[in-house]
Records
---
Amino acid sequence: MEKLRDLVKKFTEVEGPSGREEEIREAILRSLDGHVDGYRVDKVGNLIVWKNGRENKKILFDAHMDEIGVVVTHIDEAFLRVEPIGGMSPRYLLGAGIRFLVDPPVYGIVGVEGESIEEYNKNLKELSFDKIYVDVCASSKEELMERIKIGTFGVYDSRFRESAGRYVSKAMDDRIGCAVLVQLMRELVDPRYTVYCVFSMQEETGLVGASVAAYDLQPDVAIAVDVTASVDTPKANKRMAMKLDAGPAIKVMDRASISDRKVVDRLIEVAEKHGIPHQMEVLILGGTNAAAYQRTRSGIPSATVSIPTRYVHSPHEVVSESDVLNTVKLLKHYVEEAFD
Ligand code: CO
Ligand code: ZN
């Protein structure tokens, strides 16, 4: 079986911003071949896979397939303007550049406007999508429009790297969650409860996929597996505590939801019982698909298990391999002991 590292590399290098999840969905499905009892792609494009349990309860795990990106909104003589898809930062774009989703791929270099040094420095300081343009090295508008249209999507131009037990890439948010769930399905044999994994679309633009999957599947519990901030770098935000190598982060709350107390307690018990390193998480910004699951139909007890990640939403998101492996381990044991 392919190594975790290769799975993460494969998933993160796919270009799949919100609304353009076809290719990543194919990659995930292929990697699950022979490891699930069934799957379907729903009407909006969520990939739902399952393994049948011995007892009559349903556990749902969610990881979103989409990544942040940009969309082309305007074409000048030989330059483009773009808008963010999800939490894309003009600051990070400036250095990373863009890979547009056309065949063959087109690469964009991001520049900053400024007719004087003063204006340029001011624009740099107050960087926004108003102040940047994208240069795709075209000679004219006509040449440009043969390759790029209004509405063409793009993502960070960045590649997977591995060093000293760390994985580095764009789209670790949330392809690392996708890799965790694929690994979980590969390792689960004859589970006690039926396990659904939802590889959801359009999380970054409003929890779209999770909202409909929750309504459709009506699970007894839903757990989002997503990234969270890791604040273990010099002078990092001192109002939070998550760090790399300390195991999966069991989320207590973030800006979008408070995790179900019983689910959180059970996750902690399972981790303690099996000696799995773990940490508690309170995130002071952002949210996950758990917010969509918990308010669906008559309510679904929901929580999030997070993989601590440095530089979230940058082209170089950093996670720890040991945290990823311990997340798989925690979820695997949780499946057997979720409702005891
Ligand atoms: Co995100
Ligand atoms: Zn995410």
---
Amino acid sequence: MEKQNVLITGATSGIGKATAELLANNGFNLILCGRRQERLQALKDGLGKNTNVHILKFDVRDRDAVFQAISSLPKEFSKIDVLINNAGNAHGLDPIDRGSMDDWDAMLDINVKGLLYMSKAVLPQMVERESGHIINIGSTAGKEVYPKGNVYCASKHAVDAINQGMRIDLNEHGIRVGAVNPGLVETEFSDVRFKGDTQRAETVYTGYQPLKPNDIADIIHFVITRPYHVNIADLVVMPTAQASSTIIKKEL
Ligand code: NDP
Ligand code: 8X3
């Protein structure tokens, strides 16, 4: 069978990177996206030994760059079988009255509008073929709201709504759409949220066993390898130590 092409946004770190590594070893061609060119190149150099890898450097906030990137794909990568909308982050953790408007813009522009731009750029070919698979990386923050999570939670609630809306609207075209919604995963997520304060970031993942990026990569691999009539529509996964955004069994 012909190898499928999988496009992953946010492939330079965390969940996206682990997914790229797993899929490279399991018979998928990869289109890897992010803003950090040196990390993209390192992934291509490493994973390119196992599979065909194409890298695209752009910011998902930049609408024109998104469309240019997709239209620049060489022929062998131009058919996208699976789109993994993973790029995103939290920026800040502040009460709503003290939040930074730059942080709000970043979260809504990247997590919501970036996901929409990517989907808009890729969907026409899926609609034309009447096949394809979109996986939206949501969050438990898209299922509940926690103190100071306000705008990040809003962005992930939007991903939840868009995931449902896409599934409804694309149903007639036979396209699979589903979300994977993780709880706490130890990645660069908290470094970004706390703007490089690594000590504060580390406290988010200490005293219990958080999920690792590989745990989510395993799930994504499972989701995309189901027979085509099976669509995992919405999946929530947390560390065993986590019961909700605020209830975490820590041994300190
Ligand atoms: P990381 O910070 O490790 O990775 C984030 C990725 O997103 C990086 O590859 C980064 O690449 C990319 N990215 C960020 N902003 C942009 C942008 N403007 N344009 C293009 N790419 C961008 O975090 P995670 O792996 O944890 O996060 C991945 C997804 O998982 C996010 O959507 C996040 O909300 C979600 N998530 C994370 C959880 C966690 O606890 N870690 C839990 C639930 C969901 P680069 O900087 O090179 O552009
Ligand atoms: C990331 C999980 O709880 O830090 O989406 O918001 S949380």
